[in-house]
Write a structure and sequence with these properties.
Blueprint (H helix, E strand, L loop, with lengths): L8 H32 L5 H29 L1 H21 L3 H29 L5 H29 L3 H4 L1 H15 L14 H24 L4 H23 L13 H31 L4 H8 L1 H12 L1 H4 L4 H22 L6 H26 L8 H27 L9 H22 L8 H6 L1
Amino acid sequence: MTGTRSQRPAVLLALLCTATFMTTLDVFIVNVGLRPIGAALQHSALADLSWILNAYAIVFAALLVPAGRLADRYGVKATFCFGLAVFGAGSLGAALAGNVWLLVALRAVQAVGGAAIVPTSLALILNGMPKDRVARSIQIWAISGSLGASAGPTLGGLLVEASWRWIFIVNVPIALLALIVAVWTAPDPRHHPDASRPDLLGGGFLMVGIGALTLALVQGPTWGWGSAAIGGAFVVSVVAIAATVLRSARASSPVIDLALFRDRTFAWANIATFLLALAFGLQLLGLVFWMQEAWGWSAIRTGLAISPGPIMVSVASLGLRRFTARMPAGLVAALGGVALGLGAVLIGTSLGAQPQYLDVLPGWILCGIGTGLWTPTLLGTATSGLARHQTSTGSAIVQMNRQIGLTLGVAVLVVIVGSAQLDLAALPRFVHAWWWSAATASIGALTCLALLRRTSAVATVAK
């Protein structure tokens, strides 16, 4: 169907929330399944397994902005349907993969689909829902993403009990059904075929740069920090990131619009988002691996134990809004960073060889509350000072930085704890990882104070 407003708004909203839920779920569901995947595919090195997460995050981050621009040029509905098809195909391929590196490649395919789904689902809400229901629909759409994060660890643990392949198979019928419903009910907002083509070369440079940096970090302990391979990876990373900046300065439709960083709020919000996402990425995988490796817990037990953190992200982002409504957005985000860091300190001081979950739980809940405070606040604050026509690109850039932060958080964890046998003897290294996370979160919290001139958290997020 064509047109600018859907004739079935309830069905459309359910479709878009389902797609968003699926893409968010897939990030958290895989964390719990990493060790079972490694055991099944006879690949135990943490450095290698981490690429199952990193490949998705790097490709997703680099393609978010180009995907939005491609949707403007070739059509929002067509790009959304393309994303569903690619995500479903990538999920089916991942479920059938027979080795780790093929799985890593298919996770990158999934990321191509996810990058097309996220910006177009929001665009379909803005263009397809009745005007008086747009604001409420965006809130429901955002909640669906939080629910995906909350359900991921528990659902992942349940599915892995049957087989790790189910954590990918579950996406296939959802994507197929969503694609059928999208063809039937999604509106087809007017696109602009004369719009400039997105700078895919710049996106490629960004993927190479972040990928090479991640490779150097995760393989450094194994290959040797002074080895030619690691030195070459660092050089490639520097050159590729420099090429990204140069392309962004010259391209008509860059992957990173450098002009946006002239806005002080946008610049500081991106820095804070990167730092806090790095701290949280380190925490999540670190706790999963400690429970599975040192404590010997099953995937389902680990998933249930991890789930309070993501649940508190949703609870804090929605339930505490009434208390933070009149507070400066910078202060709310800073408090979130402090909570994230304090939670890391509590876990670092309580982590032990014996599986005393109740000793770890308070710190993990605090980490979830902190993430629930800083994530929506910074995502909203980043674009609050931009012109209306810049907000979509600005939002994509800050989400890109968040994904890069999560990726490097995983890489830093590998650097600190190593890729060897992660048993009880690794306790000091895991404790050090929590100290590093606390330090990074503290720096991120201080960075948030640069945003104190913003009025209130609600005003910023709701803009």
